[in-house]
Amino acid sequence: MSCLREADAEPIPGYRLIAPLGSGGFGEVWKCEAPGGILKAIKFVFGNLNGMDDDAAKAEQEANALEKVKLIRHPFIVGMDLIKVVNGELLIVMELADRSLHDLFEEYKLNGRTGIPREMLLGFLSDAADGLDHLIDKHNLQHLDVKPKNLFLVADRVKVADFGLVRGVEREGSNGRMGGITPVYAAPETFANKVSKHSDQYSLAVVYCELLSGQKPFNGRNIRQLAMQHMMEPPDLSMVPDHDRAVLRRALAKNPDERFPSCTAFVRALLGGASGNTSATITMPAVVNRAPLPQPGHSANGSNLLLVTPGTRSAQLSVGRSPSRYSAGSVGSNTLSTSLRFEPDAGVLRPAVLIGVGSFGRRALQQIRCRLLDRLGQLSQVPCVRYLYVDPDPKAAEKVSTAASDVSLTPDQVFPTPLQPVTNYRRRQLDDLMQWLPREKLYSIPRSLRVDGSRALGRLAFCDHYLRFMNRMKHELGVCTTPDALHQSSTFTGLSVRTKQPAVYVFISASGGTSGMLLDLGHAIRRSLEKLNMADAPVSVFILTGAVNDSESPVEELANVFATLTELNHYADPDVPYTARYGGPEGPQLDARGLPFSAAYLLPMSARSPEAFRDVTSHLAGYVAYDLTTPLGSGLDTLRRQ
């Protein structure tokens, strides 16, 4: 997640970010103030054009699409003011809409309605149809991602937006792979990598059914089912009025040539069906009362150190490729490649608990959630993957709201570990604390109760909440491995589960004060697994080591990195005991040997810069997403055992 995406930042000089609006498979959108005080929207496209791995694919796809549409002007197509590449990241400044049709639909549902009133909806879709027909008639382009979230209301008219998948209809068939389509709304031919001049009409018909009735004509619960239904089964139109069904059957024809000659002809036929007059004119609805727009290596247990860095070419080349017995492509409710074959006996989905510690851990979790959102769809429907953000900062709960709603963590996924005022420690457990905590460190606890880069205070913060954390880990591990969670996750994603044994991933920075809690956190995780008879479950830690070769790196951060790695190296020796007591003389005592981690990965940055940080988190997110949701993970499991 780029460091530029925060309130009041100016990723482009003169364009000040205000608040996130939402995110999807291809990017994250923020509200911003442009020069002159004009409000605009700015889209950050996921990926980096300068990236070394397949993360650049999204940015390249959208950049290619923008070349086709950037000069198009039409009253019902969202206008783009500026397209700029900043350090390899593609940014698009565009018109700010009031809301999407999806937002309006949700408002009507909250008011007890099944959907948007028919006359009003047809008025909105007539605008969208005009915009889509302009794309095909004047520019020979299909949008290919028509859905309620991409149809925006601006002053009670609808404009088509988000052109990341736009594609030309050069000839019969297609050239290249079709990636990123949304299976719920996709036309049958797109599953075969083909584009028709009537593909958008099919999607518009699905949108009409959903926004009118709250139901879709195809009810598949995963990608495989939806693909088969779109290509082979007739649509279920029982939710729409009788006079609409014949029109919708034609618009949803499997053969594109059997559909209406244009999107506007389709909408006019719907109006004619209601009135008995096929030449009926389309009138705009009255002004709608609006609610506010939703805001949205050295394996450290041995003698070899395994390094995972953006420059590790061999690791990069393995990510995205699968063992030869699989045919793998994009997987997820937002993407589908027809080269993908599902092998029920070769499961790829793994239950996991992802733990982000401190600021780096939070950003790593958000970046990973971006990847999983793209691959799996709605993350709340995948309960076998759990998220936990651990931070001693008293404002930790506020920080999670800075990301777009689709990828931001929820309050119940935040585990605060605040320090206590120094007077609390004077009254109890002082003797125990003085065995490992220098007195001057204890009396240096700031009034803000932040650890402020002190590893000793970072450890103290975790020790105060050790028992709470143990209970929380027991809960998270229990939830992600329940049969119901595994079944729901598998059913929703269409991916079979490769193992019922969970994996735990920890993301932490060595340069900050939270690095002081690393070993205690790891041993707490390991003890929780042992108590649940999961002692063999892998626990991996990913440690950001910062830019140790950059002269701009503060000496305090370098000292923390040195201390963290020295500590890991020392306790990696299985003959060195690790002893700790939590909560005073009567509290639980830990006696262990060796490191609690199955593997430790170091993540160095090439420079102390937002770009280097983004490269590291992007590479990390890609690795974790592939490990959890593709055949690469099971292949790596085999290699790790060897």
Textual characterization of the structure:
The protein has 642 residues and is an alpha/beta fold. Helix content is 37%, strand content 15%. It is built from 20 helices and 18 strands. It has a 6-stranded parallel β-sheet with strand order 13-12-11-14-15-18, sandwiched between helices. Strands 1-2-3-5-4 form a 5-stranded antiparallel β-sheet. Helix 3 packs antiparallel against helix 4 (199-213) and helix 9 packs across helix 19. The radius of gyration is 27 Å and the shape is elongated.
Strands, count: 18
* Shape assignment: elongated
Radius of gyration, in Å, reads 27 Å
Low-confidence stretches: 171-177, 275-345
Secondary-structure blueprint:
Elements: E1 16-23, E2 27-34, E3 38-45, H1 56-69, E4 80-86, E5 89-94, E6 99-100, H2 101-110, H3 118-139, E7 141-142, E8 151-154, E9 157-160, E10 167-168, H4 199-213, H5 223-232, H6 242-251, H7 263-275, H8 313-318, E11 352-357, H9 358-376, E12 385-391, H10 396-399, E13 414-416, H11 422-427, H12 430-433, H13 439-442, H14 455-464, H15 466-480, H16 483-493, E14 503-509, H17 518-531, E15 539-546, H18 555-571, E16 577-581, E17 589-593, E18 599-604, H19 610-629, H20 631-641
Parallel strand pairs: 11-12, 11-14, 12-13, 14-15, 15-18
Antiparallel strand pairs: 1-2, 2-3, 3-5, 4-5, 6-8, 7-10, 8-9, 16-17
Relevant terms:
642 residues; alpha/beta; five-stranded antiparallel beta sheet; 15% strand
Task: Write a brief structural summary.
This protein is an alpha/beta fold and 642 residues long. It has 20 helices and 18 strands. The longest helix has 22 residues, at 118-139.
